[in-house]
Amino acid sequence: MRKKFLSIVALGILAGALCACGADNSQATTEATTEAATEATEATEATEEADTSAEDDEIVYMGGLYAADGESDINLALFRSSGTPVVIVQEGSNIYYGEFTTEDATLEDGREYIKFTVEDKVYGYHFYDDMTGFVVDQDGKAHESKELDESVARDMQKETENGLDESADDAASDAGSNEGWTYGEYAYTGDDMIVKAISDYVVNELGKNYEASDVTIPNPIVIAKDDSNKDDILVWGLYWVETYKLEGDTLKSMAGGGYPGLMHLKTITDGKEYEVTSFDVVEDGANFDESAKKIFGDKYDQFIKADSDSDARNKARIDIISEFVKNNNVPATKVLDEGWDPIELNK
């Protein structure tokens, strides 16, 4: 509406300039008309740029893939809509979109990928350093893929008929809505005050990226620490966060993700406690490897080893959830990840 209004204003300015001047003032008329038209055009272009910027701030394209092996017609696009990660998958005439849950998975040939669920449909993807990769169809078959052009992704976005905006609005309206949940929020109960500060940050800051559910639980995997400078304590690690919903005796994983990087902390309250002052997170996509090497430095190999050890990461997650369940009297005996068998919690 704003662009259309400015176009009408531009015509009005132009018409006004023409009517205000007589035949004896043709040169002045021409100059006034030209100036008015130029100002109107510049105003229109400025508004269009502002509109585009606002739209980009709202729905940011993160990257995508399309199957290029001739055996599948899957297009996959990843966005961030008002801070919420969303995905669009187009396969043939079908299109699925919305927030999604992810988990690590491995193909039969040993290749690792991200498996995700959207609208009860299970797909997967993996990006190579050059932004090509492969997509995994609902049958679990991988298809070599190329980078999806943003223009195609934006067309897919339009096909959802503003679905991404609605998804973000739903997430915002649901924020903090855990009615019926009476077991409290997650709180670290261990003795390591640095881990406590990191856990609080993961829940309160990184947890904002996901739709609110019953409880948000962190899983910080510390790789290395340098506390020689109390005003800038450095902690390298893999910082995972997931939201869970209690269904019967099962905590169902709803959403989550991992954030590898470097936490900066400082001491507070006379050195008895700590707080996170900033977080250097490894970039996604084509810059992942370069960014990880820059942030982790000589600890890069440790990072790669920890990042690939999904068994150790999952064991740590179950230990943390089990401790939370025990301390808060949550009537849960197992955890469920979409598409997998339930995992028993520690007794």
What layout of secondary structure does this protein have?
Blueprint: H1 2-19, H2 26-58, E1 59-67, E2 74-81, E3 84-91, E4 94-98, E5 101-106, E6 112-118, E7 121-127, E8 133-136, E9 142-147, H3 150-159, H4 163-174, H5 193-204, E10 215-226, E11 233-247, E12 250-268, E13 273-281, H6 288-296, H7 300-308, H8 310-328, E14 334-336, E15 343-344
Parallel strand pairs: 12-14
Antiparallel strand pairs: 1-2, 1-9, 2-3, 3-4, 5-6, 6-7, 7-8, 8-9, 10-11, 11-12, 12-13, 14-15
In brief:
With 347 residues, the chain is of the alpha+beta class. The chain has 3 domains: 2-52; 60-172, Lipocalin (Beta Barrel), CATH 2.40.128; 187-344, no CATH class. It has 8 helices and 15 strands.
